[in-house]
Specification:
The complex is a heterodimer of chains A (226) and B (329). Chain A has 226 residues and is mainly alpha-helical. Chain A has ten helices and no strands. Chain B is α/β, with parallel strands linked by helices and 329 residues long. The chains are: A mainly alpha (226), B alpha/beta (329).
């Protein structure tokens, strides 16, 4: 039923290793993308015209930078950023370089996600906090971020799934993971069942992220307990 | 004391200017409940926000306890805001925080330690009658309960003033009454000065001492509630105080007279006596009696007879009578 190739890949543990590498790359890149993207998103939201501290020029500059990176297709961005990866992690090939690429591609995406989550927070609640003499910094920490928590969680899921998708292109620069297995064993050696196996496993990972994220978002949201 | 001197607010857009407030001068005494009434779009919300500078006036000055706040630096202003509580039409509770933690919020912000903040919050929840809901989340409360939590939250830092921005407009009449009673209680027992804006006359009637009527960005008239209610002079005040009367009376085309009754003679059968004395019929178009701070007052609109000399006879009779009246146009 299965090709010899697939059975061999399974028995050698290559497929499981691919699963692990995909999860590892996705999680680590998401984490770093959030460490940079979350503050960036906060700044984008706070400095916008409707924000609590409008700074038009800063908002414009950051907005343009974010849009610039977001409009480049990942595969092109990857090639263009090879020197950057070399500069940051010392290599322009392999998983470490890939993580740099993923972070560069995902951070602007995350920033926009965070920005839109924060903008969903009822402006009346922010106004109430201001009426109590709350400073801007405290509004960010005590109002905007906590109130946007469920939406931020949902955004994180979407970002992670996107990053997972990008990580499949790792093979292009010598990275590993399910994408690399699908290309080098499935596509280049004409073993469609290997490809489909990778597709299937990717779907499962996405599904797990999705379910876990949705569950978390619901669990932390205090608005729907009637 | 809160004092507004010639306050104005103009919003500038790319190609036009919108005047929200113009030359507003009012002063609010300590301990009173001061109402500001106006139709929507009159600038009430902007006006109340000029008191704690959530909106910056573009003209004039605002004084709180003799200090000009319009020129204050930001740090001072933030501290000042802790002495001016505010509640809103949509309650504006933090949805992801429990009732208790909503009330502790302003205490956290002003640096009160956790345990002490919790104790103070429980006291306040007791005051607003919600101590059994401390662990609930806003989504689990009714509108009236949410506003009670908001009141407790606004009072947490012991403010001397409480601003109410259409605080009862999203509530049903019964809940409105109980919230207003609570505000009155807070005013009397804690001595908090309340500034309340609304578009509903019954809110003003129920708890306010003085009222300013806001029409088209300006104060149309101001005075003690009983005076303004009994004898509204401006068109906008008349419209707000006698809303349904106007339409009904406009359908009737003839000459009309508006009578105002005070408690002194609200028991006398004035109309009957007038009709008997003048031997002329009148048409009662509108009549209403209300109690206000223990006093009765009433309004009546009568249509004068079409016969010129009969109408004149009635007007002559009214001139001699003690009743306040004016011809409606």
């Amino acid at each position: 039923m299965f090709s010899e190739m697939l059975i061999k890949l399974w028995e050698n543990g290559i497929i499981l290793k691919g699963v692990w590498e995909t999860i590892y790359m996705t999680t680590l890149s998401s984490l770093i993308a959030y460490i940079i993207g979350l503050p960036l998103g906060v700044v984008l939201s706070v400095t916008s015209g409707e924000g609590i501290r409008p700074i038009p020029w800063l908002n414009r500059v950051l907005g343009l930078a974010v849009n610039f990176f977001r409009s480049i297709p990942f595969i092109i961005l990857m090639v263009a950023m090879l020197p950057v990866a070399k500069w940051i992690v010392g290599v322009s090939l392999g998983n470490r370089a890939m993580i740099v690429m993923l972070v560069i591609a995902a951070t602007p995406y995350v920033a926009r996600m965070v920005e839109s989550s924060l903008k969903e927070v009822d402006s009346g609640v922010v106004e109430a906090a201001q009426s109590m003499g709350t400073g801007n910094q405290q509004i960010v920490w005590k109002v905007l971020l906590p109130e946007a928590r469920p939406s931020l969680a949902t955004g994180a899921v979407i970002s992670m799934v996107t990053i997972l998708g990008y990580s499949a292109m790792a093979a292009t620069i010598g990275g590993t993971g399910l994408g690399q297995i699908a290309i080098s064993y499935g596509h280049q050696r004409f073993q469609p069942d290997v490809t489909w196996c990778c597709v299937f496993l990717t779907v499962i990972i996405v599904q797990i992220i999705q379910e876990l994220g949705a569950w978390t978002a619901k669990k932390i949201d205090k608005r729907r307990r009637g | 004391m809160i004092e507004l001197r010639h306050v104005g607010k103009t919003y500038k857009t790319a190609d036009s200017e919108i005047v929200a407030l113009e030359d507003i001068s009012i002063s609010i005494q300590d301990g009173e409940i001061y109402g500001i009434i106006g139709l929507s779009g009159a600038g009430k919300s902007t006006l109340v926000r000029c008191i704690n500078l959530l909106e910056r006036p573009t003209a004039g000055q605002v004084f709180v306890d003799g200090n000009e706040i319009t020129g204050m630096d930001r740090r001072k202003l933030l501290r000042l805001r802790r002495s001016i509580g505010m509640i809103f039409q949509n309650f504006n509770l933090l949805e992801q925080r429990s009732v208790l933690r909503n009330v502790t919020f302003p205490l956290e912000v002003s640096g009160v330690k956790g345990q002490e903040a919790g104790r103070r919050a429980m006291e306040l929840l007791e005051l607003v009658g919600l101590s059994d809901r401390a662990g609930f989340y806003p989504a689990q409360l009714s509108g009236g309960q949410k506003q009670r939590v908001a009141i407790a939250r606004a009072l947490a830092t012991n403010p001397r003033y409480l601003l109410c921005d259409e605080a009862t407009s999203a509530l049903d009449p019964n809940t409105t009454r109980s919230i207003l009673e609570l505000l009155k209680k807070i005013n009397q027992s804690l001595g908090v000065t309340i500034i309340l804006i609304t578009h509903e006359m019954r809110v003003i009637e129920q708890i306010c001492d003085r009222v300013a009527v806001l029409g088209q960005s300006r104060i149309a008239e101001e005075g003690r509630v009983s005076e303004v209610l009994i004898n509204p002079r401006s068109d906008i005040a008349k419209e707000l105080i006698l809303p349904e009367k106007k339409k009904g009376c406009e359908i009737y085309g003839g000459r009309r007279v508006r009578l105002t009754f005070h408690s002194a003679y609200s028991r006398e059968p004035l109309i009957s006596r007038m009709v008997l004395d003048c031997q002329a019929p009148v048409n009662i178009l509108y009549a209403d009696t209300k109690e206000l701070g223990g006093e009765m007052y009433g309004h009546m609109i009568i249509g004068l007879p079409a016969e010129e000399h009969e109408a004149d006879r009635i007007l002559a009779w009214l001139k001699k009578s003690p009743v306040e009246w004016c011809e409606e146009v």
